[in-house]
Each structure stands twice: as C-alpha cells, then as structure tokens.
Amino acid sequence: MASDLQIGLSGILTAQRAMLIASHNISNANTKGYTRQSSLLATRDSVSTSAGTLGQGVELVKIIRHKDDYLNSRLRDISSSIGSASTKSQYLRELETVFNETSESSLNNALSSFFKGINDLSQNPENMSVRSTFLENANTLTDTFQRIVNELDQMNIFIKQNIENKLSDINTITTNIANINKQISALGMKGIESNDLLDKREALLQDLSKLTHITLNKQDNGMVDVMTPGGALVSGTNVKNLTFDVDTSGTLSITDAEKVTKYTFKSGEIKALQDFYNTTIVNYDKKLDNLASGIIKDVNRIHSEGVGLSGGFANIKSINSVSSATAALNAAGLTITPSSGDIYITVINTSTGAVTKNTISVDAAANSLTDVKNAINGTVSGTAGNITASIADNKLQIGAATGYKLNFSYALDPNPGTLGTSTASVSGVYSGQTNDTYTFKALGSGTIGTTSGLQVEVKNSSGTLVATLDVGSTYTAGNTLNVANGVSFSLSSGTITTGDTFSLNVINDSDTTNLLAALGINTFFSGSDASNIAVSTDVSNDVSLIAASSGEVGNNTNALRLAALQDNPSAISNASFADYLHQIASALGEEANNAYKSEESFTAIETSLQNRKDEVSGVSVDEELVNLVRYQQAYQASAKYISIVNGLMDKLLSSFG
C-alpha cells in the first residue's frame, strides 16, 4: 500500500510543479526577455517482480527553457545595427535644423542678402545709407556663420555627455552580467537549472548589444564572456570598465578605466555617437570653414585693390602678423598662402592729382616681409620719400608723406606720358583677363589732327597688335579713341615722330600674389574661418572705407567685381558660394534620409526575427491555460487515486479489527 501511495503522491507533486511552471509562464507573459518554460515528465524507475516491472509513478525530470541561440544572436546583431542607425538618424536630423536652410535666419538667406547689399552698393557707391545697410548684411552673414559653429560645438558637448552616460550604462550592465555569471555557475555546480537567471542575462545582453556590438564565448560552467572587437568586456566574473578620452587633435576614443587600452566598436549607439563626434561634425565644420574662408579670401582679395570714399590712405597697417619678419612669405604662418607675382602701389599727389604707379615683384618662396618692406622703400615713390614702409609686431605698415596718399588700385594711370610733344590721356577700366603692358608707337611723323594718315600702333607685351588708331586729319585733338578691353586713349595737340613711344600698364589684378589679403591690408573681413569671420574693425567703424571704387572715387568698378563673386562658378570646389552651400545642405539631407531608411530596414528585420523568437520562446496564455487544466485534472486524478487507496487501507485495517 505504501508503494501505491507513493505513486499517487508522485502524480500530485509532479502535477503541482507542472502547474507552477504553467502559472509562472502566464504571470511572465508580458515580461521583457522572458523565455517560455515547459515541464519534461518521465516515469520513475520501476520495480522488478517475478511478474514483470511495476511502475512507481511520475517525476519532473527537467524544466525546459525554450530558446533559439541563433535567433538570440541575430537579434543582438540587429539591435546593434538599429542602435547605430537610429542614433545617426536622430543627430543628422538635429544637424539639419542647425543649418536650417528653409528658415529666414538661414545661412543661405544671409549669403543672398550679403550679395544683394553689394549689388545695391554698385548702384549707389557713394550713398552712406546703402553702405550702412550693406554693413548690416555683412554682420548678419558673419553672425550666422558663428551661430552655426557655436551650435555645432554645443552638439559636440552634448554628444560627449551622451557617450559618458552610455558608457556608464555599459559598465552597469557588464557588472550585472558578471554577477549573474557567478550565480549561474554556483547553481550549475549543484546541478540546478537557472532558467530565470539565464533570461535576466539574455535581457542584459540584448540591452548591451544596442549600445555596442558584442559576441559571446560560452564556458562549460554556464558563464559567458562578452567580447567586442577591441577586447573583452566580461570574462566570467571579471569586468572591464570603460571610459572615453579626447586627445590633443580632438579625436574621441573609448578606453578602459585606466586609459591604457583603446576599444574599437563595430556598431551600436556609442559607435554612432563616436563617429558623429569624430567624423560627421568635423566634416560639416570643415565644409563650413571652406565656405567662410573662401568668402573671406575672395572678398578681401578684391576689396584690398579698391578704394573707399577717400580715394586712398595716409597710413595703413596689416591686420595679420607673420610668424617671423625674415621667414619666407609662403611659410610665414599666414592663413592665406601668398604666391609669387606683382603688387602695384598707386601714390597720388593730393595737390596736383599726379599719379605714380609702383610695382613690387614678390617671390613668395624666397622673399620675407622684410624684403617686401625694403622693396616698397626702393620704389620710385619710396625713394622720393612719398611713401615709407615699416614693420612693427611682425605687421607691415605703409605711410604716405604729407600731401600724398596711397592705394592698391588697379585703375589705369590717367596720365601715362607723352608721345612727341603731345600729351597722352587714358581712361576706362581694363577688362582683360591678365595683367599686361600696352606700348603705344607713332607710325609716321606730323601734327596731331592735321597730317593725313598719321597713326598710332598699340601692341601688348608679347608683341601682338592690339589696335591701330588714326590720329591724323580725321582726328580731333583731345577726342577719345577706343583701344581695346575697356581702355580708351586720347592725344592733345602736338607733333609726333615715327618711333615715338610710351608704355601703359593695364592691370586686371593689382595684387597677383594675394599678399594684401593674406596680411589683411585694406580688407573687408577679418578672421580665417567660420568660427572667427567678422567685418574688419576699420570698416565697422567707418563705412566710407568700403572699397566700392577703383582709382577715381565714386565709380562702381570694384563693387561690380565683388558682386560678380556671387556667380563665380569656380569659387569653391568648382561651384559658386551658393551652390557649395546647397551641396552641403543636400549632402546632409541625403545622409539623414539614408540613415532613416537604414533604421526602417533594420527595424523590419528585427520585427521579423522577434516574431520568430516569439514562436519559439514566447508565452501563449491560451496554451498555458490548457496546460493548467491538464495538470489540474492529473492532480485531481492522483488525489482521487490516493483517496481510493486510503479507503482500501481503512477497510483492510478494519477487517482485522
């Protein structure tokens, strides 16, 4: 009878435990990371008799944890990819709002307003109100550049904080995994299954994989090692805590707590943040700097060659200093690297209006700022003492003597000399593509405006005929004749003889070295990139210094040159300034859209994998309720069996009574 009771008891206990497992499944049906468990039942060892073996009931052999290691591994991989894509998408969208090209305060609008101000200036070069409005437009442009740079810097600060927080999360998760490893190993040594601990560990691994891509090495004792491409995060019960470090170049690296070992991550949220900090923001910051520095260089290059309302300077000093007054100019630490070429300095006698053109030849690889100073002092005007160059604090300063002023205008010399006894006059604005020298030569002898067939031949520096001008009987002395490329010419009354000549420098660029722009002499902007671009202090304090003219005060030739920069198709990387800015915005939009599409794609894969995992590991409440009914009926049947056996025992005992 005792054996009969044991059989019934085994049925009750086994059914009770199976119901507990089913109830455990139901109660955790919505628990994140929970894996469905089921009961594996088996007959107890039977007893041999002469008649055969007698069963001894049932027992719970094992609690099965329904899991698929492949699906779990794939979900971890996809989770890491989603972490990368979603983080990248989020921050690229935020970066789009920083540039914000559709708003009124966008850089695109500021750039358009800047060039509109230049166009207005070209129509009213002497109007002080127009000049003031243009200055405000320029300040808006520089403020917009600096605002974007500041917002990029703030993004970097926030990203750094986010990385720090997520590394703290990693350290917490890996510590918890190591602790669970220890518990699982201890239970395993006792032969005890630890399904719930395994679920907790799997959930932690899933959370960790979103932060960084991981792989697992399983140990025989049930522990797992958590690996990254840079090294192990968890080795059994040992944990490697992580932090970050920013080196002198500004590159952010993930390291161990001792900052000895660098960790390279394959994907995940931290990898996306690290890439955004080290690469994305740096790239767009560089593009912004390229745009700002291109505007600074081109505007300053043209502005330095023009004149404001005063027509010149009594004294002018460079804004930028060289690293050494004796260093070669192309290695003197200037933001804009000068090249070899010529600089033209115009000196004007304020009493007579007489103009002296001075040429300085510069070899950027051999000449220093000291050499330039000496060359200026060695010109015709320098030797005469009408201008004097000096160096202070590694900056070039040029001063004009009393009664003189200087500029760097490319304007034609209005009084280039004489041809015979006739005085030559030149007007117009040279429109040729390169600097040149026109030589005027008399063909024939006679009186200007009287002698029939009298001509003047004009050739350029290579000897090519530019024009042949009739100054004989059909010409009226003093009348203007068109030469070529915007240059006009006239002769006063007088006589000429065959072979009489004079030369005229026709200048398209009065500083082919870009040294004036590099030094910051008569420039509009100060600064070198988007972070420090600003309108020069001199211009900000006095808008009359805005160089809208060339040579003669009041003309608009330099303003027109500045306005033409707006449509220059090769301003930056074979694009205009506006097109280059549009390329930045388009590239950013495309990058953000691709990140969003990647996130959608990975999310769809994750959903599919999660559905497959749910089929294997998920809890079906309906199914568990059916199991409860089954085990309840088994429990009741075993209890009924024990009751029957108990009744038989009572009758048997009473029969002996």
Description:
- This protein has 657 residues and is α+β, with helices and mostly antiparallel strands.
- The protein has 13 helices and 29 strands.
- The strands form ten sheets. A four-stranded antiparallel beta sheet has the order 5-6-7-8, covered by helices on one side. Strands 18-19-25-24 form a four-stranded antiparallel beta sheet, with no helix packed on it. It has a four-stranded antiparallel beta sheet with strand order 23-22-20-27, with no helix packed on it.
- The longest helix has 62 residues, at 128-189.
- The radius of gyration is 44 Å and the shape is rod-shaped.
How many strand elements?
A: 29
State the secondary-structure class: alpha+beta
Strand order of the largest sheet: 5-6-7-8
Helix count? 13
SSE map:
Layout: H1 2-27, E1 37-43, E2 47-49, E3 52-54, E4 58-65, H2 69-99, H3 107-123, H4 128-189, H5 195-211, E5 215-218, E6 224-228, E7 231-235, E8 238-239, E9 242-246, E10 252-256, E11 262-263, H6 269-303, E12 315-317, E13 341-349, E14 355-362, H7 369-377, H8 380-383, E15 387-392, E16 395-400, E17 404-407, E18 417-419, E19 422-428, E20 436-443, E21 446-447, E22 455-459, E23 465-470, E24 481-484, E25 487-491, E26 495-496, E27 501-506, H9 515-519, E28 525-526, E29 534-535, H10 537-541, H11 557-564, H12 577-617, H13 621-655
Antiparallel strand pairs: 1-4, 2-3, 5-6, 6-7, 7-8, 9-10, 10-11, 12-16, 13-14, 13-17, 15-16, 18-19, 19-25, 20-22, 20-27, 21-26, 22-23, 24-25, 28-29
